[in-house]
UniProtKB/TrEMBL annotation:
Pfam families: Glyco_hydro_3
Stored Gene3D superfamilies: Glycoside hydrolase, family 3, N-terminal domain
Record keywords: Carbohydrate metabolism, Glycoprotein, Glycosidase, Hydrolase, Signal
Family: Belongs to the glycosyl hydrolase 3 family.
Name of this protein: Glycoside hydrolase family 3 N-terminal domain-containing protein
Gene Ontology molecular-function annotations: hydrolase activity, hydrolyzing O-glycosyl compounds
Length: 356
């Protein structure tokens, strides 16, 4: 499979010497944080942070998009390469271009995941959608799409299915469509993030963006329905996985998956063997209300084994606060320096493989 190739070619340079908190720079820490901003005009402060190397990537929403956005995205990369804090690798530049209802950029894929999954030839239709998404992202100077949705809906009322965002209620169809969508994007040099591990298809009407969601599925259902497509995508070396903010008592009754080391370290990496990059859903999500402020949530997510933290609250101060909190947590030992360094290595390896 051609989209699996590049990850294997790069010799990992990290982890040769064991990291200590004092050997981890602010630039290394910043590589973990994805920033956002409000409106059409990015604030000058964000460009300053990029030049200083305090930004790992940018996520774009509909409110940021007009015909000047491709030029703006280039300005972000230029500020980074000309700045003092550069790593030599491009910034991660991402958006949610799933298809159907969820499209931030003007263009395709026009078909929703549901329409793709119910097409006469779902596999080819999914690959075509991935190609369309990949080409559009490239035209806009993006390198990463936070898609496809790999959630297997289990009731029609499911909040993702209500917007036609799930390919199917069949794990096999979801797996095939996701794999081919990712292949279509990879052929256009765009990274995909399969989401939302271990799966939001067992949820009802409540959305984790707004409120706490508990999914009571038993372990057997999680494994055989929700996680089955991930096992397949991991074998095919999917570059990124976004984790869910729902709570799954079958594995961890206290922490949402993206804040749970039982889910991320033990299950996703340990049991399922994922070696790519993990990314959180929105750190300001309503479902995390009881886990402190955004900076505290960022530290909890990093402790659980999350690599990239999504500061999507539409201001640059949110990302800055998270970088500062991660630095402090490394210094006082709240975060394990060696584990954090391994995560930085995964991110660098991912960024090294992208062309802007
Ligand atoms: C996009 O918005 C920015 C900020 O308002 C503006 O300067 C620019 O001219 C707009 N681009 C287009 C093509 O309308
Ligand atoms: C979902 O798809 C159905 C057709 O399959 C359509 O009637 C409905 O309007 C779509 N819903 C949304 C929110 O797009
Ligand atoms: C930035 O966004 C976060 C998350 O929505 C919010 O908590 C914070 O108050 C915002 N800060 C500013 C300065 O707007």
């Amino acid at each position: 499979m051609h989209w699996t190739g590049f990850a294997r070619l790069i010799v990992p340079l990290w982890g040769l010497a064991s990291a200590t908190s004092s050997s981890i720079s602010e630039q290394d820490v910043a590589a973990h944080v994805i920033y956002s901003y409000a409106g059409l005009e990015p604030p000058a402060h964000l460009f300053d942070l990029i030049r200083q190397g305090k930004v790992g990537g940018i996520i774009i929403f509909g409110e940021n998009v007009n015909a000047s956005l491709p030029a703006t995205m280039q300005l972000f990369q230029d500020a980074y390469t000309e700045g003092t804090g550069r790593s030599g690798f491009p910034l991660l530049t991402m958006t949610d271009q799933e298809g159907g209802e969820v499209r931030r950029l003007s263009g395709g894929p026009e078909l929703s995941a549901k329409e793709i999954g119910s097409a006469a030839n779902p596999a080819q239709t999914a690959e075509d959608a991935g190609t369309v998404a990949g080409r559009l992202l490239r035209e806009y100077n993006f390198n990463t799409n936070l898609a496809p949705v790999v959630d297997v809906f289990q009731s029609p009322a499911n909040f993702l299915n209500a917007f036609n965002r799930s390919f199917s209620d069949s794990p096999e169809v979801v797996q095939t469509c996701a794999e081919r969508f990712i292949a279509g994007e990879a052929a256009e040099n765009v990274l995909s993030a399969a989401k939302h591990f271990p799966g939001l298809g067992g949820a009802g009407e409540a959305n984790t963006d707004n409120e706490p969601v508990t999914i009571e599925s038993d372990w057997e259902t999680l494994q055989n329905v929700d996680m089955q497509p991930y096992q397949h995508l991991i074998a095919a070396e999917v570059p990124m996985i976004m984790c869910s903010w729902a709570i799954y008592p079958a594995v961890d009754a206290d922490r949402p998956a993206g804040l749970s080391s039982k889910w991320i370290k033990d299950t996703l990496r340990g049991q399922m063997g994922f070696k790519g990059v993990t990314i959180t859903d929105a750190i300001e999500a309503g479902s995390l209300a009881r886990f402190g402020n955004d900076a505290q949530r960022g530290v909890l997510a990093a402790q659980a084994g999350m690599d990239l933290l999504l500061a999507s609250g539409r201001n640059a101060t949110q990302g800055e606060a998270i970088v500062d909190a991660l630095m402090a947590a490394l210094q006082d030992g709240t975060l394990d320096a060696e584990e954090f360094d391994a995560a930085t290595g995964r991110i660098s390896k991912l960024r090294k493989g992208i062309t802007v």
